[in-house]
Amino acid sequence: MKEIKNQPKDIIGWREWISLPDLGIPAIKAKIDTGARTSALHVFDLEEFTADGRQMVRFGVHPLQRSSSIVRLCEAPVLEQRKVKNSGGRSENRIVIQTNAQIGSLVWPINITLTNRDLMMFRMLLGRTALENTFLINPGCSFLTGRSLKKSYKKRKKQ
Q: How far apart are CA 42 and CA 91, in angstroms?
């Protein structure tokens, strides 16, 4: 990631709508979590496979909380497998992928662990390594970059 320490940083709230364009996810509500080192995404039907000699992963995502009506089927190269402590303090092995994230006009690569977050309030956590040198967080605010991304699903439904 390029060094941007001395440049002005965008201010985001403790939760924001973000896009994961490489995964075909135009909008997902993420909790901005400086307590989590790595970002995490709720996935289901996780399947590892090999294509052209590369280790790959295929998975489904329900990007809208409390809704299973919208499904995104995704594929990505496996970056690594890593032991991660979940919110309950238990270690679990997770697949890590790298993909681009977008908040506003800023697009940058992030690492995401794939896990079951079905019982959590947010389908995605944006961890501190994805945030460092890029954003300042105002914990008293939400959706400082707007709420318009969610509307992208309504537009696609009508088509």
A: 17
Q: Which CATH class is domain 10-146?
A: mainly beta
Report field, pTM of the whole predicted structure over 0.70: yes
Q: Which of 51, 49, 58 is nearest to 23 (CA)?
A: 58
Give the pairing type, strands 10-13 and 135-138: parallel
41 near 123, Cβ under 8 Å? Answer: yes
Q: Where are the domains of the chain?
A: 10-146
3-state secondary structure 86-99: CCCCCEEEEEEEEE
Q: What's the pLDDT tens digit per position in 117-151?
A: 877 889 999 999 999 888 999 999 999 988 766 67
Q: Give the Å distances, CA to CA, from 47 to 82, 97, 142, 159.
A: 16, 13, 34, 30
